[in-house]
């Protein structure tokens, strides 16, 4: 079964229709099943979950999550890792309600305890937390169960994937949360304060994903009042990093995330708005957000067209958010946007329309 379904969505759907999921879950939960068999069952279920969203819905309908969570009580590490890998795939699906992680009050503390078992448990659990932390209630639950203390040391892990998932956890924990942000400012990891570690992760030689996520952590801590807006880590590190992410050399998704995060960072502070407006020709850079998709680019299939149109909309939306933040308090910046070479084409067109009438 495992070999048949790997990379084959049609075979996955066929197995689900034939009733494989209840049988696999039965074997997974049987005390008489060997640990090896249980592990193989969890691996096959994880592969089925990597198919379509309908596959995940079918697994949820069979109550897979309680069965996998029960499996985490096993003493066998390989089985625990297989269950966590499957849980990670299910919880990161958009069709899975995040609340399913918080239904049983014993689950979060047990997951915290499993963080020390291996780099795989660390990676999968942090990924589950970062996807299932939606709003202040979830932040409070994770915070109260020691998420900050348990995850902080993972930022120095030898595994890039572990460091990255830990970083993503802190970004969702700190978002609009003064309590978490104030705590993060004072956390020490190997003799270094957490903000200093985030700043190191902003450096140009680090992967873009890491730079962006570190910038988000520092941005959220700043907006929550834990870091001053005139702190060097914001003015000289975070802001320039986010401006770099707006460059047309970056991927579309990175440009969108960079512009939206920068807009959020500078929104309430006029001095940050002024600094941003003169950093790396940002206003002129934003005009490029309206030049996608290019009229000269050959679109060969409908999927590519859908992709391009979706990102064109996201780029424009991100650019308008950043324009709004840049010009929120300073008339000179507003004039730069509306009259300068960085004005969006929609403003150019509207001004021409006014002139012609």
TrEMBL record:
GO annotation terms (biological process): proteasome-mediated ubiquitin-dependent protein catabolic process
Keywords: Cytoplasm, Nucleus, Repeat
One of the Pfam families matching this protein, by short name: Arm
Annotated compartments: Cytoplasm; Nucleus
Any one GO cellular component localisation term in the record: cytoplasm
Annotated ARM repeat ranges: 19-55
Protein name according to UniProt: Armadillo repeat-containing protein 8
